[in-house]
Amino acid sequence: MNLSAEVLVGNALDALKNLPDDSVQTVVTSPPYWGLRDYGNDEQLGLEKSPLDFIENLCKVFDEVWRVLKDDGTLWLNIGDTYVGTGSKGDAKDPKYADGRNGQEVALNNKISGLKTKELIGVPWRVAFALQARGWYLRQDIIWAKSNPMPESVRDRCTKSHEYIFLMTKNPKYFYDHEAIKEDAVTTPKARDKNGEGYQADYAGGDRFSPGERVFGADGKRNKRDVWNVPVRPYEEAHFAVYPPDLIEPCILAGSKEGDTVLDPFSGSGTTGEVALKHNRNYIGLELNPEYAEISRKRLLKVVGMFGEVIVK
User: Fold this and answer.
1) Which one-letter DSSP state was computed for residue 134?
2) CA separation for the pair 296, 290 (Å, rounded)
3) What share of the chain is helix, strand, coil (3-state, %, to 5)?
4) HEC string of 223-259?
5) Which residue of 106, 163, 264, 283 could cross-link 5, Cys pair, CB 3.0 to 4.6 Å?
């Protein structure tokens, strides 16, 4: 199968405008988190003065994603949360890391009107509800449970060990291959009378189904649950946070078919592209930082092989 891989350099909003309508089957992405990192580019998202400004800017990007996504397409959005901080004399950056440790500076959260210091902001759900208000269907919240989370020196709350992935769609009916991501069953399959299940009691029209038995898990599999236990796995060439390939593999397998196009408007080191190409999907990544785009190009070339091509422009 001849696959294509492109990485377009520029901010996501502008780069998206170069893509045609209804050209992408699924979008898998993790935007910069608000108030967490400064990647050294004036056009980056995440350093807005308030989370509301950040959410509005993010929604503008996903308005364009809506346009390029097919009507039966899906959006898988990974986004993390943060706490209200006190800032550093009005400066959004911590001078301790001004030397660019790990290739970036660490941003602090200034005081936010209406929220108290140390409060969890709830950025993921605020983003999800804002997208919902703009027409997206909020189909599911998936929990990414990390077995090896970043240690935290806190004594007044638990260590944070999860993030969200939101499944969002343009329409109530959409492409979703549940068979492709089934997981091993943990119980022995049992046959049930199709018309003997509990919810039939509320059905006034008689038997809902024809006579017979329903067998769940006859193939030794079950429908994938919404808590995904995936350890954090850094990518050695990247100096910034990346999600692990195992986390987004189900998104790509369920959200697309071989030969479809997968988009990541915040491509980073190209994790989404790597997984998409390995499963015979085409890939388009958008990346603001040319250095990260080059990391992505080298990574994707390893997948397509010596006769493949990864275009960066």
Assistant:
1) T
2) 10
3) 25, 25, 50
4) CCCCEEECCCCCCCCCCCCCCCHHHHHHHHHHHCCCC
5) 283
Sign of CA dihedral 230, 232, 236, 239: positive
Residue 217 has pLDDT above 90, yes or no: no
pLDDT number for residue 87: 43
To the question of domain 5-182+223-312 being in CATH 3.40.309.10, the answer is no
CA atoms within 13 A on the CB side of 187: 8
Collapse the DSSP code of 202 into the 3-class scheme (helix H, G, I; strand E, B; otherwise coil) and give the result. helix
Full-model pTM: 0.84
What one-character DSSP code corresponds to residue 50? S
| Spans of all domains in the chain | 5-182+223-312, 186-222
Dihedral of CA 122/26/145/273: which sign?
Answer: negative
Is the Cβ–Cβ distance between 235 and 206 less than 8 Å? no
183 has which bridge partners? 222
